[in-house]
Amino acid sequence: MTDELCALLAEDLETAFPTLVRTHQDAVFATALRCSGGWHDAEDLAQETFVRAHRSLLGWEAQRIRELRPRAWLCTIVVNLARNRARDAGRRPRVVAFDDARAHAADPPRGPEAWAERSEQRGQLSAALATLPAAHREAIVLRHVAGLGYAEIAQALGAPVGTVKAQVHRGLRTLAEVLRAQGLTLEEVS
Amino acid sequence: MGPVNVRDLRVAAPPTLSFSVLERVGIFDTYTATELEPVGVVYVASNPRGVSHVDVAPDPDTFEADFWRHFGRPVRRGKVPAAALRALEAGRTTGFDVDLRGVGDFHREALTAARHIPRGEVRSYSWVAREIHRERAVRAVGSAMAQNPIPLLIPCHRVVRNDGRIGEYGLGGPDVKRRLLRHEGLEPAELERLAARGVRLLGSDTTRISCLPSCHHARRTAPRHLVEFASTDAARAAGYRACKHCRPFE
């Protein structure tokens, strides 16, 4: 099955690329935000992801572009970039919870309110996510933030599908426990 | 407190993201502003494919923001082809490329037909429709002209209503359209007076050729040889053929 957008990318990259960015920027940015140190790092990661994607597409055969699953591909780039940066920094991924209130003060959102993280609860949720082991966090983010299928996640993370499912499951269980200790209930998701 | 959902971790990208990405990968147009009689300050944008946009705006920021909203890619101050600027100044509409990506096939055809209307002459919406073999799509031609991304260089100001009235104009309204035509040496009020009297075609009784009133062949016919027709049928019935320059009928 060829993604319609990929057909356009294969045909005329310069014309279709802006649509690729617009279509997948939320998934890419959210994944970047949840795998990195904060809003600023996330913007940087997301930008770098699309810039690298563009460079790759420039060099690829049309057929390869047509067969692409763009969201999974882009999210794979984000995760790898985030990992590399963490590794280059010479320490464990320094994922700090994104502090909503502070971010607002530093960088007041001007666009649609949707992109602002507002509620305190959401702040607690992202803080709890940051305490998870990287593998669990990445699996959860790709599944429930980026919305990828398990096969896509398995490919992105280079792990068997069964392992990825287990990571999502265990990660969510841990997340629920951390939140419960703070008096919050984590909703079941499919 | 209500339950939280892991999907609450989704966030929308900041609006600056796509702009920065496209600038970094070199997908942006460049523009310049130029003072143009009788419109005022005109902004002209282009990219390697050709001229992409012509517009008026109160200031550069507004032009840039409108461009981003309309085309979904950034525009920065920079070079545009000199040939296009010279053409703009001279009222010429060829000698440079245009980028009509994002314009549908029908609109593109209509705009391409309009592009060949000579300076100082006008054609009607139905004339354009006929030129592109879509006689019945007159209203659609109207919206193609209204949404022309490259006014002036694609001279939609030279397309007027079928009844000879001046019609609307996106780049500042009918008054600007009138001034533009006058600047090109055409008096719109004269055309409107002719139309109001029911005159649709002008012929020359020496050549037996009939023209649209603004055709330069009709305009250089001596008044004593000028014949007026209320319709193409009337011209045809009188044995007049259509001018090959302005093509008033098949």
Report on this structure.
The complex is a heterodimer of chains A (190) and B (250). Chain A is mainly alpha-helical. Chain A contains ten helices and no strands. Chain A has helices spanning 4-11, 13-34, 39-59, 62-66, 70-88, 100-106, 120-130, 134-145, 150-157, 161-180. The two termini of chain A are 25 Å apart. Chain B has 250 residues and is of the alpha/beta class. Chain B contains ten helices and ten strands. In chain B, the strands form three sheets. Chain B has a four-stranded mixed sheet with strand order 3-2-1-4, with helices on both faces. In chain B, helix 4 (105-115) packs across helix 6 and helix 5 crosses helix 6 (138-146). The longest helix of chain B is centred in the N-terminal third of the chain and has 12 residues, at 60-71. At the A-B interface, helix 2, helix 3, helix 7, helix 8 and helix 10 of A face helix 1 of B.
List the helices and strands and how they pair.
The complex is a heterodimer of chains A (190) and B (250).
Chain A: H1 4-11, H2 13-34, H3 39-59, H4 62-66, H5 70-88, H6 100-106, H7 120-130, H8 134-145, H9 150-157, H10 161-180
Helix pairs in contact in A: 1-2, 2-3, 2-5, 2-8, 3-5, 5-9, 8-10, 9-10
Chain B: H1 16-24, E1 29-36, E2 40-47, E3 50-56, H2 60-71, E4 75-77, H3 82-90, H4 105-115, E5 123-124, H5 125-131, H6 138-146, E6 159-160, H7 174-183, H8 188-196, E7 201-204, E8 209-211, H9 216-219, E9 226-229, H10 232-237, E10 241-242
Parallel strand pairs in B: 1-4, 5-6, 8-10
Antiparallel strand pairs in B: 1-2, 2-3, 7-8, 7-9
